[in-house]
Amino acid sequence: MNLRNLLLFGFVALLIVLEGTTTAFGLFGGSWNTALGILNMGLISAILALGVNMQWGYAGLFNVGVVGFVALGGLAPVLVSTQPVTEVWTTQGAGRLILALLIGLAVIALAIVLYGRLRGRNRTLAILAVLIGGFFLFRAVFDPAVDVVESFQPATHSNLGGLGLPVLLAWPVGALFAAGAAWVIGKTALGLRSDYLAIATLGIGEIIIAVMKNEDWLARGVKNVISIPRPVPYEVDLQRDPGFIDLAASFGSDPVTASTVAVKLLYAGLFVVILLALIWASEKALNSPWGRMMRAIRDNETAAEAMGKDVTRRHLQIFILGSAVCGLAGAMIVTLDSQLTPGTYNPLRFTFLIWVMVIVGGSGNNWGSVLGGFLIWFLWIKVEPWGHALMGLITSGMAEGALKSHLQDSAAHMRLLTMGLVLLLVLRFSPRGLIPER
Amino acid sequence: MDFLNAIVALLNFVVIPATSYGAQLALGALGVTLIYGILRFSNFAHGDTMAFGTAMVILVTWAFQSVGIHFGPLPTALLALPFGIAITAALVLATDKAVYRFYRRQKAAPVILVIVSMGVMFIMNGVTRFIIGVGEIRFDDGGRFIVNANEFKKATGLAEGLAFRSTQGLTILTAIIVVAALFWFLNKTRTGKSMRAYSDNEDLALLSGINPERVVAVTWIIAAGLAVIAGTLYGLDKSFKAFNYFQLLLPIFASAIVGGLGSPLGAIAGGFLIAFTEVGFTYAWKKVATYVLPDALAPDGLAQLLSTDYKFAVSFAILVIVLLFKPTGLFKGKAV
Amino acid sequence: MSSSRNPYKDDRGNKDRSITKSGGGELEYPTKGGKARPAPGGPFLAAENMTGGYGAADILHDCTLTVEKGQIAVIVGPNGAGKSTAMKAVFGMLNLRGGHVKLDGEDITALTPQDRVAKGMGFVPQVNNVFPSMSVEENLEMGAFIRKDDFRATMEQVYDLFPILKDKRRQPAGELSGGQRQQVAVGRALMTKPKLLMLDEPTAGVSPIVMDELFDRIIEVARTGISILMVEQNARQALEIADRGYVLVQGANKYTDTGEALLADPEVRRTFLGG
Ligand SMILES: Nc1ncnc2c1ncn2[C@@H]1O[C@H](COP(=O)(O)OP(=O)(O)OP(=O)(O)O)[C@@H](O)[C@H]1O
Ligand SMILES: [Mg+2]
């Protein structure tokens, strides 16, 4: 941490404070509520960027399916912390559904075993037979069970529900979900004779989202799951709590505003703890023999291989770790929102934007990723209102008409444009990012 | 009779739609594969190039329509196509000059170019939305059908109707012409051969006096042309929506990779393979099955293997399976 | 490979085949390049006092190579002596810190490799010297890329020189045997009708019989008035056909004489020709 980096972080902090305190030149919102909102998602963005940085920065792995891991992590709060829908846990419903999933797993496992054991045409035929037969068996068990589950109170449920456990437990579980998916992807894509990770992650990302949108029994699909339990108190409870009202009064604030700010601060506290723990662990790992080996592999794979390092294994390891961090962040997002809305998992927002954060911050540098996470998230949120303001200024002299309204409506798309520009400018003029790797 | 009906249903719901979708994918994948062959990276902005180009075609189409220019029974968009291609090619060339060329001169690692193309993707995405919005746009104003289902039923006396939409016919015809022209260009012309040479061995191409900037410029122009044609055909066939074009990136990449990145022939084969499996897996086979199977065996469900929402999963599964058995794709990815 | 110096070249060890194609060229692009200046007199090719290398360290030290019109000059030397580097320097693929290259009465030191091709130089690199996915005939066509006239006669001459290529002319060069591929490479370089042909180990990896044949062909080419500058591992045979021989050691001229004289020199025989 040298002075320059401290200044950079100070600058980001200043932006958030300004957002909270002033409406100067119409650039900022002047509301602590939005400022803390940006801060909270900034914290999560920083964690996401850390995860991607592990993969790209430490090991040169190109993950373009971040959105899938985020979504998978987001599943965890639903499955862990919502109440079980006991009515569907019958032998014809959930029981059968789980049996079907086990059958599916068994079929895939069998196919993999056959792939390893057999050779040539026999292998192809045997695997085809197993997969086709297994698919129909799976559907035969699965479809009726899904009907049972999904037909139960479609307006409010139609899913299995969760385990009713504390939501904080969902965070490590989200990381585990993502890690599991990463293991499967890494095993396949990194195990192929040449490396196909980019297309593999791109594909799996889309598939995970398709599953989450369509399998209502899992988490209600696009019908969304709302009011997921929170790890922090509810605003209404705070507003009723006399102690809190007094506290708010002592700050000269009304209870309603104070309660929203307090809740956001509590979230921020939780996120800061996680973020710091992750940075500490990453830095520690990076400077350990393990981290040195990762960098040795990255900088000269052939030499590392010659020294007997199992490169594929190391790559798999780091891919799983990075994805787990993304899954964790995904679970945190859903917890922060108290709802799971699969329709919002857009690759531009959850894959490519994270890449912008990592590149802008500085590939390979954990602090850089954190900085990039905050800065880019701040821009992502603020460019839209700024775009509106700018368009308002540009079109103020124009006559009312189609062009004027078109321009004003289109201002919202400025943010994509800006992100692209920022990425290109940084890549061109500061290719190592704002905080370069040492 | 039942057998004929089954064939007609198969044609109607599987073969024709998959062929036109396959042609669209193949055209898109050809662009990706050409850029990969010559510039050595997968262009993440390709989907958005398609979207931008199609948006241009739509704007020109609207302009034509507003002054009363039409193209007989064919969609006006076909008249607008050359303009769309010209504008898109100009934009892409300008992008190359402003963005990519610097990295080429630096001999930058290809993976850096991939990241650069992400930036370009964002910008093009924003520009397209800025110009034409995010909504769904239909711009097909041509005759609807080459073969109409009802007329077909009347003419043949079959229970199944065969509908062959003109956009589908147009897609297939255009794709054949474009692919033939491209292969002729790559294999028979001096410039085309110099592109293949450059893709094969950059240094030797330079030593032979081939001008790399020219090769790259021609490649961008062709890729832009392919993108606009693919995008316009897709839009005529279905509809235009910027986000859908961005999402086409996956099946297009999958097609190019399945076929063998860098191989034009592979891109085409890959496009059709992906399209046919996608449609085949997501089509409800009940109708066809009822015609060919004895009543006792007729399925009671829809006989649909997967819901259409999982079409990406199908393209992806095909990709993985092909790569497991043929790690370099169907046509060993090599030459341009 | 990653490089700490140039961040644009740092790929972090990424080898993802689904997004990048490996094996790009190393040659700098011909963006800047000066003009040739007249420099009458001297040998047909005179590359004198060349000093330079790839990065900070010099590989070549005051190295001088000359070839007379229609003659064969051969460079021999141990592995890593800088023979290929010297060839690249003559061809303008290396930034020289000192020295100059003159061809046929002109100083061409400032020219790009492309411009040197136009001036009548042909170069067959040691490795990657064909277009593997293109047919033999297309390889030859690409050799003639800068020619605006009809090159069919030249192609016939190449086919006469290497008859096997005529039989294989529809076959991709990458599917040929090593010896055949070298013939394609030489043929490609001949397509511009060069006045100076530069060959970097044309016989690498070919059997002795094919090697003798290739040498015969090279002599044939020289008889047509083309000057030849050639690097060879098979020092003895090469010096036998050489009008002039250079023994290069650590980037500097160690011995320079006629081929015959070098073969007769006991010192050269002992250290470089194995007795
Ligand atoms: N592209 C390059 N970049 C940096 N150094 C290089 C490069 N090519 C060669 N060298 C170095 O220059 C020196 C001379 O190499 P060169 O290829 O000229 O040797 P050579 O005499 O042709 O050897 P050989 O007989 O094995 O072909 C070697 O030390 C080599 O490591
Ligand atoms: Mg050499």
TrEMBL record, chain A:
Keywords in alphabetical order: Cell membrane, Membrane, Transmembrane, Transmembrane helix
Keyword Membrane: yes
InterPro entries, sorted: ABC_transp_permease, LivM-like
Subcellular location: Cell membrane
Bilayer disposition of the protein: Multi-pass membrane protein
TM region(s), chain numbering: 34-52, 59-78, 98-118, 125-142, 162-184, 196-212, 265-286, 316-334, 354-381
Protein name: Branched-chain amino acid ABC transporter permease
Organism the protein comes from: Defluviimonas salinarum
Lineage: Bacteria, Pseudomonadati, Pseudomonadota, Alphaproteobacteria, Rhodobacterales
TrEMBL record, chain B:
Primary subcellular site in the record, as a coarse category: membrane
Residues spanning the membrane: 6-39, 51-71, 77-96, 108-132, 168-186, 215-236, 305-325
Topology of the protein relative to the lipid bilayer: Multi-pass membrane protein
CDD domains in alphabetical order: TM_PBP1_LivH_like (cd06582)
Domain of life: Bacteria
Location relative to the cell: Cell membrane
Keywords (A to Z) from UniProt: Amino-acid transport, Cell inner membrane, Cell membrane, Membrane, Transmembrane, Transmembrane helix, Transport
Pfam families, per database record: BPD_transp_2
Family assignment from sequence similarity: Belongs to the binding-protein-dependent transport system permease family. LivHM subfamily.
Name this polypeptide is given: Branched-chain amino acid ABC transporter permease
Species this chain originates from: Albidovulum salinarum
Lineage per the UniProt record: Bacteria, Pseudomonadati, Pseudomonadota, Alphaproteobacteria, Rhodobacterales
UniProtKB/TrEMBL annotation, chain C:
ABC transporter domain span: 45-275
InterPro entries per record: AAA+_ATPase, ABC_transporter-like_ATP-bd, BCAA_Transport_ATP-bd_LivF, P-loop_NTPase
KW Repressor (keyword) present: no
Molecular function, one GO term: ATP binding
Transmembrane segments: none
One Pfam family cited in the UniProt record for this chain: ABC_tran
Keyword Membrane on entry: no
Family label: Belongs to the ABC transporter superfamily.
This protein's name: ABC transporter ATP-binding protein
Species for this entry: Defluviimonas salinarum
